[in-house]
Design the sequence.
Protein backbone atom coordinates (compact mmCIF):
# COMPACT_ATOMS: atom_id res chain seq x y z
CA UNK A 1 0.00 0.00 0.00
CA UNK A 2 1.47 3.33 -1.08
CA UNK A 3 1.25 6.07 1.62
CA UNK A 4 -1.20 8.89 0.87
CA UNK A 5 1.52 11.53 0.92
CA UNK A 6 3.46 9.62 -1.77
CA UNK A 7 0.31 9.18 -3.87
CA UNK A 8 -0.36 12.93 -3.73
CA UNK A 9 3.27 13.58 -4.68
CA UNK A 10 3.05 11.25 -7.68
CA UNK A 11 -0.23 12.82 -8.92
CA UNK A 12 1.23 16.29 -8.48
CA UNK A 13 4.40 15.26 -10.33
CA UNK A 14 2.37 13.70 -13.15
CA UNK A 15 0.12 16.77 -13.47
CA UNK A 16 3.12 19.13 -13.59
CA UNK A 17 4.90 16.87 -16.11
CA UNK A 18 1.86 17.02 -18.39
CA UNK A 19 1.65 20.79 -17.89
CA UNK A 20 5.27 21.18 -19.05
CA UNK A 21 4.91 18.72 -21.95
CA UNK A 22 1.79 20.60 -23.12
CA UNK A 23 4.20 23.28 -24.42
CA UNK A 24 5.06 20.89 -27.24
CA UNK A 25 1.58 21.55 -28.64
CA UNK A 26 1.75 25.29 -28.08
CA UNK A 27 2.34 27.85 -25.33
CA UNK A 28 -0.55 27.74 -22.85
CA UNK A 29 -1.53 28.79 -19.27
CA UNK A 30 -0.82 25.30 -17.86
CA UNK A 31 2.79 25.48 -19.03
CA UNK A 32 3.12 29.04 -17.69
CA UNK A 33 1.73 27.92 -14.32
CA UNK A 34 4.24 25.02 -14.07
CA UNK A 35 7.10 27.27 -15.18
CA UNK A 36 6.36 29.97 -12.60
CA UNK A 37 5.81 27.40 -9.88
CA UNK A 38 9.19 25.84 -10.66
CA UNK A 39 11.03 29.16 -10.60
CA UNK A 40 9.37 30.22 -7.34
CA UNK A 41 9.93 26.95 -5.52
CA UNK A 42 13.55 26.74 -6.74
CA UNK A 43 14.30 30.23 -5.46
CA UNK A 44 12.71 29.49 -2.08
CA UNK A 45 14.49 26.13 -1.82
CA UNK A 46 17.88 27.65 -2.59
CA UNK A 47 17.39 30.53 -0.17
CA UNK A 48 16.43 28.15 2.64
CA UNK A 49 19.32 25.81 1.88
CA UNK A 50 21.82 28.63 1.82
CA UNK A 51 20.53 29.88 5.16
CA UNK A 52 20.71 26.52 6.93
CA UNK A 53 23.78 25.07 5.17
CA UNK A 54 25.89 28.17 4.72
CA UNK A 55 24.92 31.08 6.91
CA UNK A 56 24.09 29.28 10.17
CA UNK A 57 26.92 26.68 10.42
CA UNK A 58 29.68 28.73 8.79
CA UNK A 59 28.99 32.17 10.22
CA UNK A 60 26.22 32.67 12.75
CA UNK A 61 26.81 29.70 15.08
CA UNK A 62 30.65 30.03 15.26
CA UNK A 63 30.21 33.77 15.80
CA UNK A 64 27.54 33.70 18.50
CA UNK A 65 28.23 30.35 20.21
CA UNK A 66 32.03 30.06 19.93
CA UNK A 67 32.80 33.77 19.95
CA UNK A 68 35.02 33.64 16.82
CA UNK A 69 35.08 37.39 16.32
CA UNK A 70 37.34 37.20 13.26
CA UNK A 71 34.26 36.03 11.36
CA UNK A 72 32.91 39.58 11.66
CA UNK A 73 35.19 40.45 8.73
CA UNK A 74 33.51 38.12 6.19
CA UNK A 75 30.16 39.03 7.78
CA UNK A 76 30.81 42.72 7.11
CA UNK A 77 32.01 41.96 3.58
CA UNK A 78 28.83 39.94 3.00
CA UNK A 79 26.70 42.85 4.20
CA UNK A 80 28.56 45.15 1.79
CA UNK A 81 27.29 43.07 -1.12
CA UNK A 82 23.80 44.41 -0.39
CA UNK A 83 25.02 47.95 -0.95
CA UNK A 84 24.35 47.35 -4.65
CA UNK A 85 20.71 48.13 -3.92
CA UNK A 86 21.56 51.79 -3.35
CA UNK A 87 23.10 54.02 -5.99
CA UNK A 88 25.07 56.06 -3.49
CA UNK A 89 26.87 53.16 -1.80
CA UNK A 90 26.94 50.57 -4.56
CA UNK A 91 30.69 51.06 -4.99
CA UNK A 92 31.19 49.37 -1.62
CA UNK A 93 30.07 46.03 -3.08
CA UNK A 94 33.21 45.99 -5.24
CA UNK A 95 35.38 45.03 -2.27
CA UNK A 96 33.73 41.71 -1.46
CA UNK A 97 33.27 41.04 -5.19
CA UNK A 98 36.99 41.65 -5.77
CA UNK A 99 37.81 39.22 -2.98
CA UNK A 100 35.50 36.50 -4.33
CA UNK A 101 36.70 36.91 -7.92
CA UNK A 102 40.35 37.03 -6.85
CA UNK A 103 40.13 33.85 -4.78
CA UNK A 104 38.16 31.93 -7.42
CA UNK A 105 40.44 33.11 -10.22
CA UNK A 106 43.47 31.96 -8.25
CA UNK A 107 41.98 28.54 -7.55
CA UNK A 108 40.63 28.08 -11.07
CA UNK A 109 43.79 29.19 -12.92
CA UNK A 110 46.02 27.00 -10.80
CA UNK A 111 43.68 24.05 -11.22
CA UNK A 112 43.36 24.59 -14.94
CA UNK A 113 47.11 24.78 -15.50
CA UNK A 114 48.03 21.98 -13.12
CA UNK A 115 45.12 19.64 -13.73
CA UNK A 116 44.08 20.35 -17.29
CA UNK A 117 46.50 22.14 -19.62
CA UNK A 118 49.83 20.47 -18.80
CA UNK A 119 48.51 16.89 -18.38
CA UNK A 120 46.61 17.21 -21.66
CA UNK A 121 49.68 18.48 -23.53
CA UNK A 122 51.64 15.62 -22.03
CA UNK A 123 48.95 13.10 -22.99
CA UNK A 124 49.07 14.29 -26.59
CA UNK A 125 52.78 13.61 -26.98
CA UNK A 126 52.38 10.04 -28.21
CA UNK A 127 54.69 7.81 -30.27
CA UNK A 128 53.63 7.75 -33.91
CA UNK A 129 55.18 4.34 -34.58
CA UNK A 130 54.39 1.46 -32.23
CA UNK A 131 54.26 -2.36 -32.37
CA UNK A 132 50.51 -2.24 -32.89
CA UNK A 133 49.42 -0.72 -36.23
CA UNK A 134 46.02 0.30 -34.79
CA UNK A 135 47.66 2.22 -31.92
CA UNK A 136 50.03 3.88 -34.41
CA UNK A 137 47.08 4.86 -36.61
CA UNK A 138 45.18 6.26 -33.61
CA UNK A 139 48.20 8.23 -32.44
CA UNK A 140 48.83 9.68 -35.91
CA UNK A 141 45.16 10.62 -36.22
CA UNK A 142 45.22 12.25 -32.77
CA UNK A 143 48.39 14.23 -33.53
CA UNK A 144 47.03 15.30 -36.92
CA UNK A 145 43.76 16.40 -35.32
CA UNK A 146 45.50 18.41 -32.61
CA UNK A 147 47.91 20.17 -35.00
CA UNK A 148 45.37 20.97 -37.72
CA UNK A 149 42.76 21.98 -35.12
CA UNK A 150 45.22 24.42 -33.57
CA UNK A 151 46.21 25.74 -37.01
CA UNK A 152 42.56 26.52 -37.73
CA UNK A 153 42.60 28.87 -34.74
CA UNK A 154 45.82 30.55 -35.87
CA UNK A 155 44.59 33.87 -37.21
CA UNK A 156 47.87 35.81 -37.50
CA UNK A 157 48.29 34.67 -41.11
CA UNK A 158 45.70 34.39 -43.87
CA UNK A 159 44.44 30.84 -44.35
CA UNK A 160 45.96 30.27 -47.81
CA UNK A 161 48.26 27.65 -49.29
CA UNK A 162 49.58 24.98 -46.90
CA UNK A 163 48.14 26.75 -43.86
CA UNK A 164 44.74 27.01 -45.55
CA UNK A 165 44.80 23.30 -46.44
CA UNK A 166 45.78 22.29 -42.91
CA UNK A 167 43.08 24.59 -41.46
CA UNK A 168 40.50 22.91 -43.71
CA UNK A 169 41.54 19.51 -42.36
CA UNK A 170 41.24 21.04 -38.89
CA UNK A 171 37.65 22.08 -39.67
CA UNK A 172 36.85 18.48 -40.60
CA UNK A 173 38.18 17.25 -37.27
CA UNK A 174 36.19 19.95 -35.46
CA UNK A 175 33.01 19.09 -37.38
CA UNK A 176 33.37 15.41 -36.55
CA UNK A 177 33.83 16.25 -32.87
CA UNK A 178 30.77 18.55 -32.97
CA UNK A 179 28.80 15.72 -34.57
CA UNK A 180 29.85 13.32 -31.81
CA UNK A 181 28.92 15.89 -29.16
CA UNK A 182 25.54 16.48 -30.81
CA UNK A 183 24.91 12.73 -30.91
CA UNK A 184 25.62 12.52 -27.19
CA UNK A 185 23.33 15.51 -26.60
CA UNK A 186 20.47 13.78 -28.44
CA UNK A 187 21.11 10.67 -26.35
CA UNK A 188 21.05 12.75 -23.17
CA UNK A 189 17.79 14.52 -24.04
CA UNK A 190 16.17 11.23 -24.98
CA UNK A 191 17.23 9.81 -21.62
CA UNK A 192 15.49 12.69 -19.84
CA UNK A 193 12.31 12.06 -21.81
CA UNK A 194 12.57 8.33 -21.09
CA UNK A 195 12.80 9.19 -17.39
CA UNK A 196 9.61 11.25 -17.52
CA UNK A 197 7.68 8.75 -19.65
CA UNK A 198 8.78 5.93 -17.37
CA UNK A 199 7.56 7.96 -14.38
CA UNK A 200 4.16 8.46 -16.03
CA UNK A 201 3.80 4.83 -17.12
CA UNK A 202 5.24 3.20 -14.00
CA UNK A 203 4.67 5.37 -10.93
CA UNK A 204 1.49 7.12 -12.07
CA UNK A 205 -0.42 4.77 -14.35
CA UNK A 206 1.13 1.47 -13.12
CA UNK A 207 1.28 0.19 -16.70
CA UNK A 208 4.91 -0.90 -16.31
CA UNK A 209 6.27 -3.07 -13.52
CA UNK B 1 5.92 11.50 -55.04
CA UNK B 2 6.96 15.15 -55.32
CA UNK B 3 3.84 16.22 -53.42
CA UNK B 4 4.65 13.82 -50.58
CA UNK B 5 8.17 15.18 -50.41
CA UNK B 6 6.89 18.76 -50.41
CA UNK B 7 4.54 17.91 -47.55
CA UNK B 8 7.39 16.27 -45.66
CA UNK B 9 9.45 19.41 -46.01
CA UNK B 10 6.80 21.42 -44.21
CA UNK B 11 5.86 18.66 -41.76
CA UNK B 12 4.35 19.94 -38.51
CA UNK B 13 6.93 19.45 -35.77
CA UNK B 14 4.18 18.11 -33.47
CA UNK B 15 3.90 15.02 -35.66
CA UNK B 16 7.61 14.39 -35.03
CA UNK B 17 6.96 14.80 -31.28
CA UNK B 18 4.21 12.13 -31.45
CA UNK B 19 6.55 9.70 -33.22
CA UNK B 20 9.30 10.34 -30.66
CA UNK B 21 6.86 9.84 -27.79
CA UNK B 22 5.62 6.57 -29.27
CA UNK B 23 9.17 5.39 -29.96
CA UNK B 24 9.84 5.78 -26.23
CA UNK B 25 6.50 4.66 -24.74
CA UNK B 26 6.05 1.48 -26.79
CA UNK B 27 9.46 -0.09 -25.94
CA UNK B 28 8.85 0.75 -22.27
CA UNK B 29 5.46 -0.97 -22.37
CA UNK B 30 6.66 -3.90 -24.48
CA UNK B 31 10.37 -4.40 -23.73
CA UNK B 32 12.40 -6.76 -25.91
CA UNK B 33 15.62 -6.35 -23.91
CA UNK B 34 17.97 -5.66 -26.83
CA UNK B 35 21.50 -6.75 -26.06
CA UNK B 36 24.38 -4.29 -25.97
CA UNK B 37 28.10 -4.52 -25.41
CA UNK B 38 30.15 -3.02 -22.58
CA UNK B 39 32.50 -0.26 -23.74
CA UNK B 40 36.10 0.07 -22.43
CA UNK B 41 35.52 3.24 -20.31
CA UNK B 42 32.73 1.49 -18.36
CA UNK B 43 34.80 -1.68 -18.05
CA UNK B 44 37.70 0.38 -16.65
CA UNK B 45 35.38 1.99 -14.08
CA UNK B 46 34.18 -1.44 -13.00
CA UNK B 47 37.72 -2.89 -12.91
CA UNK B 48 39.00 0.04 -10.86
CA UNK B 49 36.45 -0.68 -8.13
CA UNK B 50 37.05 -4.43 -8.37
CA UNK B 51 40.77 -3.86 -7.76
CA UNK B 52 40.22 -2.11 -4.39
CA UNK B 53 40.83 -4.40 -1.37
CA UNK B 54 37.69 -5.06 0.75
CA UNK B 55 37.39 -2.79 3.78
CA UNK B 56 38.89 0.20 1.96
CA UNK B 57 37.11 3.52 2.02
CA UNK B 58 35.69 5.12 -1.11
CA UNK B 59 34.52 8.72 -1.32
CA UNK B 60 31.42 9.20 -3.48
CA UNK B 61 30.54 12.77 -4.39
CA UNK B 62 26.94 12.96 -5.63
CA UNK B 63 26.88 16.27 -7.48
CA UNK B 64 23.63 16.35 -9.43
CA UNK B 65 19.99 17.35 -9.25
CA UNK B 66 16.61 15.86 -10.22
CA UNK B 67 16.99 17.39 -13.71
CA UNK B 68 19.59 14.78 -14.61
CA UNK B 69 18.10 11.95 -12.56
CA UNK B 70 17.17 9.60 -15.44
CA UNK B 71 20.84 9.42 -16.43
CA UNK B 72 22.66 9.75 -13.13
CA UNK B 73 20.42 8.18 -10.52
CA UNK B 74 20.76 4.64 -11.98
CA UNK B 75 24.55 4.91 -11.97
CA UNK B 76 24.47 6.32 -8.43
CA UNK B 77 22.44 3.30 -7.28
CA UNK B 78 24.69 0.91 -9.21
CA UNK B 79 27.88 2.47 -7.80
CA UNK B 80 26.60 2.28 -4.20
CA UNK B 81 25.53 -1.32 -4.75
CA UNK B 82 28.83 -2.31 -6.35
CA UNK B 83 30.88 -0.71 -3.56
CA UNK B 84 28.85 -2.09 -0.66
CA UNK B 85 28.51 -5.57 -2.16
CA UNK B 86 32.31 -5.70 -2.36
CA UNK B 87 32.54 -4.83 1.35
CA UNK B 88 33.98 -1.40 0.64
CA UNK B 89 33.12 1.47 2.96
CA UNK B 90 31.17 4.31 1.35
CA UNK B 91 31.64 7.91 2.46
CA UNK B 92 29.31 10.12 0.48
CA UNK B 93 29.35 13.91 0.20
CA UNK B 94 27.51 16.38 -2.00
CA UNK B 95 28.66 19.63 -3.53
CA UNK B 96 25.18 20.20 -4.96
CA UNK B 97 22.47 20.81 -2.31
CA UNK B 98 19.96 18.75 -4.26
CA UNK B 99 22.35 15.79 -4.26
CA UNK B 100 21.80 15.06 -0.57
CA UNK B 101 18.29 13.67 -0.85
CA UNK B 102 19.13 11.88 -4.10
CA UNK B 103 22.10 10.14 -2.49
CA UNK B 104 19.90 9.12 0.45
CA UNK B 105 17.28 7.78 -1.94
CA UNK B 106 19.86 5.87 -3.96
CA UNK B 107 21.26 4.33 -0.80
CA UNK B 108 17.80 3.36 0.48
CA UNK B 109 17.24 1.45 -2.79
CA UNK B 110 20.53 -0.38 -2.35
CA UNK B 111 19.82 -1.20 1.29
CA UNK B 112 16.70 -3.10 0.20
CA UNK B 113 19.10 -5.62 -1.39
CA UNK B 114 21.83 -5.29 1.26
CA UNK B 115 19.93 -4.80 4.54
CA UNK B 116 22.90 -5.87 6.68
CA UNK B 117 24.85 -2.76 5.79
CA UNK B 118 24.85 -0.37 8.71
CA UNK B 119 24.89 3.42 8.77
CA UNK B 120 28.07 4.78 10.34
CA UNK B 121 29.87 1.45 9.96
CA UNK B 122 29.54 0.56 6.27
CA UNK B 123 28.44 3.91 4.90
CA UNK B 124 27.96 7.50 5.93
CA UNK B 125 26.46 10.60 4.37
CA UNK B 126 28.40 13.73 5.29
CA UNK B 127 25.87 15.89 3.47
CA UNK B 128 26.16 19.05 1.43
CA UNK B 129 28.88 21.65 1.74
CA UNK B 130 28.82 24.96 -0.10
CA UNK B 131 32.07 26.20 -1.61
CA UNK B 132 32.65 24.19 -4.81
CA UNK B 133 36.38 24.01 -5.63
CA UNK B 134 37.28 25.43 -2.22
CA UNK B 135 35.67 22.38 -0.58
CA UNK B 136 37.58 20.04 -2.91
CA UNK B 137 40.92 21.60 -2.01
CA UNK B 138 39.94 21.73 1.65
CA UNK B 139 39.24 17.97 1.64
CA UNK B 140 42.85 17.45 0.58
CA UNK B 141 43.99 19.29 3.71
CA UNK B 142 41.55 17.74 6.18
CA UNK B 143 38.35 15.78 5.63
CA UNK B 144 37.18 16.05 9.28
CA UNK B 145 37.71 19.82 9.32
CA UNK B 146 35.82 20.23 6.04
CA UNK B 147 32.96 18.03 7.21
CA UNK B 148 32.95 18.17 11.05
CA UNK B 149 29.49 16.51 11.18
CA UNK B 150 27.49 14.10 9.06
CA UNK B 151 24.18 15.19 7.49
CA UNK B 152 22.29 14.36 10.71
CA UNK B 153 24.60 16.51 12.83
CA UNK B 154 26.57 13.62 14.41
CA UNK B 155 30.17 14.58 15.11
CA UNK B 156 32.67 12.96 12.77
CA UNK B 157 34.73 11.50 15.68
CA UNK B 158 31.62 9.59 16.84
CA UNK B 159 31.20 7.82 13.48
CA UNK B 160 33.16 4.50 13.33
CA UNK B 161 33.66 4.53 9.53
CA UNK B 162 35.44 7.90 9.77
CA UNK B 163 38.11 6.59 12.11
CA UNK B 164 41.52 7.12 10.51
CA UNK B 165 40.11 9.19 7.66
CA UNK B 166 41.98 12.47 7.48
CA UNK B 167 42.97 13.25 3.91
CA UNK B 168 42.73 11.75 0.43
CA UNK B 169 45.61 9.43 1.42
CA UNK B 170 43.07 7.47 3.46
CA UNK B 171 40.66 7.13 0.52
CA UNK B 172 41.13 4.27 -1.97
CA UNK B 173 39.14 5.90 -4.75
CA UNK B 174 36.95 8.88 -5.49
CA UNK B 175 33.73 8.38 -7.44
CA UNK B 176 31.98 11.45 -8.80
CA UNK B 177 28.41 11.39 -10.08
CA UNK B 178 28.46 14.63 -12.01
CA UNK B 179 25.54 16.67 -13.32
CA UNK B 180 27.52 19.81 -14.19
CA UNK B 181 29.51 22.41 -12.29
CA UNK B 182 31.06 21.68 -9.83
CA UNK B 183 31.66 18.17 -11.05
CA UNK B 184 34.16 15.90 -12.73
CA UNK B 185 36.11 18.66 -14.48
CA UNK B 186 36.67 20.48 -11.18
CA UNK B 187 37.61 17.26 -9.33
CA UNK B 188 40.16 16.54 -12.09
CA UNK B 189 41.57 20.05 -12.02
CA UNK B 190 41.74 20.50 -8.26
CA UNK B 191 42.30 17.06 -6.79
CA UNK B 192 43.47 14.25 -9.09
CA UNK B 193 47.09 15.23 -9.74
CA UNK B 194 47.54 17.41 -6.67
CA UNK B 195 46.60 14.66 -4.23
CA UNK B 196 47.20 11.60 -6.45
CA UNK B 197 43.62 10.39 -6.22
CA UNK B 198 42.07 7.69 -8.41
CA UNK B 199 38.90 9.24 -9.87
CA UNK B 200 36.03 7.46 -11.60
CA UNK B 201 33.28 9.55 -13.12
CA UNK B 202 29.63 9.02 -13.93
CA UNK B 203 28.31 11.94 -15.95
CA UNK B 204 25.50 13.01 -18.26
CA UNK B 205 25.87 12.12 -21.93
CA UNK B 206 26.04 15.83 -22.87
CA UNK B 207 29.39 16.31 -21.15
CA UNK B 208 30.81 12.80 -21.67
CA UNK B 209 32.73 13.75 -24.88
CA UNK B 210 34.50 16.50 -22.93
CA UNK B 211 35.75 13.97 -20.37
CA UNK B 212 37.19 11.42 -22.82
CA UNK B 213 40.53 13.30 -22.97
CA UNK B 214 40.82 12.83 -19.18
CA UNK B 215 40.34 9.12 -19.67
CA UNK B 216 43.05 9.00 -22.31
CA UNK B 217 45.48 10.97 -20.13
CA UNK B 218 44.83 8.66 -17.17
CA UNK B 219 43.29 11.40 -15.05
CA UNK B 220 40.09 9.34 -14.94
CA UNK B 221 40.22 5.61 -14.25
CA UNK B 222 36.79 5.04 -15.78
CA UNK B 223 33.82 6.85 -17.26
CA UNK B 224 30.10 6.14 -17.26
CA UNK B 225 28.52 8.35 -19.92
CA UNK B 226 24.77 8.90 -19.65
CA UNK B 227 22.05 6.29 -19.51
CA UNK B 228 23.98 3.98 -21.85
CA UNK B 229 26.99 4.03 -19.50
CA UNK B 230 24.72 3.35 -16.54
CA UNK B 231 23.07 0.43 -18.35
CA UNK B 232 26.46 -1.08 -19.21
CA UNK B 233 27.52 -0.75 -15.59
CA UNK B 234 24.29 -2.38 -14.40
CA UNK B 235 25.06 -5.24 -16.78
CA UNK B 236 28.56 -5.67 -15.32
CA UNK B 237 27.36 -5.75 -11.72
CA UNK B 238 24.50 -8.05 -12.74
CA UNK B 239 21.81 -5.82 -11.25
CA UNK B 240 19.56 -4.52 -14.03
CA UNK B 241 17.85 -1.25 -13.10
CA UNK B 242 16.07 1.66 -14.72
CA UNK B 243 18.96 2.40 -17.09
CA UNK B 244 18.77 -1.13 -18.52
CA UNK B 245 15.02 -0.65 -18.76
CA UNK B 246 15.45 2.50 -20.83
CA UNK B 247 17.87 1.06 -23.39
CA UNK B 248 15.17 -0.32 -25.71
CA UNK B 249 13.45 3.07 -25.77
CA UNK B 250 16.83 4.75 -26.29
CA UNK B 251 17.66 2.57 -29.29
CA UNK B 252 14.23 2.87 -30.95
CA UNK B 253 14.07 6.65 -30.44
CA UNK B 254 17.54 7.01 -31.98
CA UNK B 255 16.40 5.06 -35.05
CA UNK B 256 13.35 7.35 -35.36
CA UNK B 257 15.55 10.48 -35.07
CA UNK B 258 17.94 9.04 -37.66
CA UNK B 259 15.03 8.28 -40.05
CA UNK B 260 13.62 11.79 -39.67
CA UNK B 261 17.03 13.31 -40.43
CA UNK B 262 17.37 11.05 -43.48
CA UNK B 263 13.83 11.69 -44.79
CA UNK B 264 14.15 15.40 -44.06
CA UNK B 265 17.34 15.64 -46.10
CA UNK B 266 15.92 13.60 -48.98
CA UNK B 267 12.86 15.87 -49.07
CA UNK B 268 15.00 19.00 -48.78
CA UNK B 269 17.24 18.15 -51.70
CA UNK B 270 14.60 16.45 -53.87
CA UNK B 271 12.07 19.28 -54.02
CA UNK B 272 14.35 21.93 -55.60
CA UNK B 273 17.35 19.83 -56.51
CA UNK B 274 20.81 19.56 -54.98
CA UNK B 275 22.39 22.31 -57.09
CA UNK B 276 19.80 24.96 -56.21
CA UNK B 277 19.92 24.10 -52.53
CA UNK B 278 23.68 24.19 -52.32
CA UNK B 279 23.71 27.58 -54.07
CA UNK B 280 21.57 29.00 -51.27
Sequence:
Amino acid sequence: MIPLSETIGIWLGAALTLCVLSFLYKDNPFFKFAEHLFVGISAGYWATLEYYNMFLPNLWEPLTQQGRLLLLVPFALGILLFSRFTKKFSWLSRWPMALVIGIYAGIAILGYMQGDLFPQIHANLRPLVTDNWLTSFNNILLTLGVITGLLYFFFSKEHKGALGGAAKVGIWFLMISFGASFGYTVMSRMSLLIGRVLFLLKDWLHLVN
Amino acid sequence: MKRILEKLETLDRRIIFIFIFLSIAIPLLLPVNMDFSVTPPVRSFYDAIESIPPGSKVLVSCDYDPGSMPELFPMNVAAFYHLLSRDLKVITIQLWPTGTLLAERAMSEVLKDLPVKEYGVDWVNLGFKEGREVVMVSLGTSIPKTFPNDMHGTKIEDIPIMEGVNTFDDIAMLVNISGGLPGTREWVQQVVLRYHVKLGSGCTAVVAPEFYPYLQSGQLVGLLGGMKGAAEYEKLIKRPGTARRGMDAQSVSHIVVFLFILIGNIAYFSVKGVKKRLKV
Notes: Chain B touches chain A through 53 residues (CB under 8 Å). Chain B has one domain: 40-246. The CA atoms of residues 121 and 161 of chain B lie 5 Å apart. The radius of gyration of chain B is 22 Å.
